[in-house]
Design brief:
The protein has 92 residues and is an alpha+beta fold. 58% of the residues lie in helices and 13% in strands. It has a single domain (3-86), classed as Arc Repressor Mutant, subunit A (Orthogonal Bundle), CATH 1.10.10. Strands 1-3-2 form a three-stranded antiparallel β-sheet. It is elongated and about 50 Å long.
Length: 92
């Protein structure tokens, strides 16, 4: 598992975009604000870790469908908790 991939703002943007439901690669690319190559690399890692599920469409249009797994939702929620504690260390 590559923790550098999990613990960063790009992963947070990807998971946040997917928390409301499935997206195509093209849609996610617009939300994630990163290059297609970078997004593809992150999705590969996140898919291998079981945080997202990537399904490639073999028919036209040749796009990918990406969904957040239940494990991905749990990780995303923990990331938000950590982010909140860092931004406001005095809150409980």
């Amino acid at each position: 598992m590559n923790l550098d991939i999990v613990i960063n703002t790009r992963t947070l943007r990807i998971l946040k975009a997917l928390v409301n439901g499935r997206m195509t690669f093209t849609m996610l690319l617009k939300h994630a604000r990163m290059s297609a190559t970078t997004l593809e690399r992150y999705l590969k890692e996140l898919d291998e870790m079981g945080l997202v599920r990537v399904t490639k469409n073999i028919f036209f249009p040749f796009d990918m469908e990406i969904i957040l797994t239940s494990k991905g939702k749990k990780v995303f929620n923990k990331m938000l908790e950590i982010k909140a504690k860092i931004e406001n260390p005095w809150s409980r």
